[in-house]
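Predict the 3D structure for this chain.
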Amino acid sequence: MTDDRSFLFLLGSARHGGNTEALARAAAAHLPAGTAQEWLHLADLPLSPFTDRRHTDGVYPQPEGNEQRLLSATLAATDLVVASPLYWYSVSAPTKLYLDYWSAWLRVPGADFRARMGGKTMWAVSALSSSDTSTADPLVGTLRLSARYLGMNWGGVLLGNGSRPGDVDSDADAQAAAKTFFN
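Done. Predicted structure below.
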């Protein structure tokens, strides 16, 4: 039996295979067999700097290129997993830019972004180099409030400790939490 959910993993790290990605992959390994998964590295799909046109044009053109790829993947998923390392107490720059584009997608004729996002579930995965998990509160707040704004469900956050590559593999608490994170 396959799961009818479809997970989009948005990897916001500046490098491939970092601690945040490793923790996300550890959690994904415990999804039910057959659950659709798509993994996108935001750094591999660069977006132009975001231009706010809400008060001038009021609408945005139909996306093309990487922007269209991200919009299509976002809309196709039932569950969005934003996997961003904690950078300066918030999401990474590629993750923030991706979220900025949500403002455009709300105003793309025919995209129906708000209506199509409602009811999806957003999850967060992050690695931080501090044992004080409250340092991730701004990152969690950014994602949780963004989900709420669009009527999405908040699935929760999975935090792990790691600075150097591979460190999160030694975080026993994070590895144990990864096993049941998506339940």
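The first strand starts at residue 6 and ends at 11.
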